[in-house]
Amino acid sequence: MTKKVFPDNFFWGASTASHQVEGRTENQWSAWELENAQYFAKHAKSRLGEFDNWDKIKNQATNPANYVSGRGVDHYNRYKEDFDIAKKLNLTAFRFGIEWSRIEPEEGKWDAAEIDHYRNYIAELRKRDLEPFLNIWHWTMPTWFTDKGGFEKSGNLKCWDRFVSKLMDELGDDIKYVITINEPNVYATFSYLTGEWPPAATNPWSFFKVYINLVRAHKRAYSIIKKKNKKIQVGVAAQLANLQAKRPRNIVDVSVTQFMRYWWNWWFLNRIRKQQDFIGFNYYFTDYYKNFTKENPSAPLSDLNWYMEPEGLHPLLSRVWAHYKKPIIITENGLADSADLNRQWWIEETIVAMERALSEGIDIRGYFHWSLLDNFEWKYGWWPEFGLVQINRQNMVRTVRPSAKWYADKIAALRKGSQPTQDNT
Ligand code: BGC
Asked: What does the CA dihedral 296, 300, 303, 307 come to, rounded to 10 degrees?
């Protein structure tokens, strides 16, 4: 046996988000889905017709039901079963979202039964030795909050403060890790700049206000949480990409890449530099810039037509470490792969990338695969399947995918301290 590369207390986790799995949520997203499902189905071909797998997805993509989260994957009722599966997969941690609209369905009115639901939820994780990573906000909000302008109005941050305080009062003794906000850059961009997500704004000024208010929201949450309990470790789940110049000696490609690294990766994290105990980030994308646009290799592609370069995690880890010198947690990472053709390869390359980084002294504390379960993929709906576990939404039966079985064995081997993963490249 060789020396272990991953520390004993490394978190092997999976991530989920309330709206994407729970079912029967009533928030600004579920309202938007009902308003737009027909339209999305009707225009699916013009949006997705270019995808390599259009023939495979077209039945689902042209069906309005695809765009409605509805019963979700009934995780709200089946969470114990799902945690049993996570445990069988040898996971040691679990990231989940709190659904604000359940806890505070009307402004200032708390739903005690829903708070108890999450209290039991956390207790069930603990029973199985799965460390709970509580995510406060993963894009969904009660409609009373969005009706008032949501995060566009700084005055609304008092509602956020009240919500965070309530969560801490009720659940703060049961948790050690909190992620405040998921992917502020993605949310602000899609909801306020490109108009692809509710409230479908295309207004740079609104975008900017929201982005700044999310910085403030994080900072305020940080101080509320620390006042409650200094020991709770707090971070965000930033969306960071491994951005590279297509032509490494071309001045335009290099400058654009440098700018995009600053703007997409560091802008938000720099502003909360002092208010985070770990750097949490989601990694999905390696993008190459040629002149002013992205020009990625044409293969391999995931079901969402995203270019896949899992090993791009390594250069990204190096840069994150160089910038912040703080413990790192990979809060999401994965791919849409309904046939489970590439998932094992993706995870294996990811583990190699983390091993390289760890052996260089980069302090990585955990890895959370996205996702444990197939789930509702926002504007694309149900056809993209990110789960280690496949779900039949007719009968809600869960089936562990072959790649997940491989991953479970791999975790067991790494925890025992066997050979480092072979890099076959
Ligand atoms: C989000 C998830 C999403 C995943 C795959 C991340 O950007 O946090 O909610 O499902 O990517 O697109």
From this structure: -20
Alpha-carbon span 234 to 220, nearest angstrom: 12
pLDDT (tens digit per residue) in 28-71 = 999 999 999 999 999 999 999 999 999 999 999 999 999 999 99
CA pair distance 44, 60, nearest whole angstrom: 10
Give the CA distances from residue 93 to residues 11, 73, 87, 133, 413, in Å, rounded to whole numbers and listed in that order.
6, 20, 9, 7, 17
17 lines ligand 1 (CB under 6 A): yes
The alpha carbon of 418 and the centre of ligand 1 are apart by a number of angstroms equal to 32
Residue written as token pair 């996205």: 370
Give the global pTM. Answer: 0.97
Task: Output the CA 371–ligand 1 centroid distance in Å.
Answer: 9
Residue 312 per-residue DSSP state: G
Domains parsed from the chain with CATH numbers: 11-416 (3.20.20.80)
Is 370 close to ligand 1, i.e. is its CB under 6 Å away? Answer: yes
* Nearest atom, ligand 1, residue 183 CA: 8
- DSSP of 336-352, one letter per residue? --TT-SSHHHHHHHHHH
Q: Which residue in the block uniquely carries the two structure tokens 């989940």?
A: 96
| Ligand 1 atom closest to Cα of residue 334 | 5
Whose alpha carbon is nearest atom 5 of ligand 1?
377
Over residues 113-148, the pLDDT tens digits come to 999 999 999 999 999 999 999 999 999 999 999 999
Task: Please provide the DSSP assignment of 356-400 as one string.
Answer: HHHHTT--EEEEEEE-SB---BGGGBTSS---SEEEETTTTEEEE
Residue 276 CB–ligand 1 contact under 6 Å: no
Say which DSSP state 66 is in.
Answer: G
Span from the CA of 2 to the centroid of ligand 1 (angstroms): 36
- What single DSSP character describes residue 49? T
Q: Is 303 in the pocket of ligand 1 (CB under 6 A)?
A: no
Inter-residue contact 122 to 134 (CB < 8 Å): yes
83 three-class SS:
helix
Q: Which residues pair with 134 in a beta bridge?
A: 96, 178
- Span from the CA of 19 to the centroid of ligand 1 (angstroms): 11
Decide whether any atom of ligand 1 lies within 6 Å of the 236 Cβ.
Answer: no
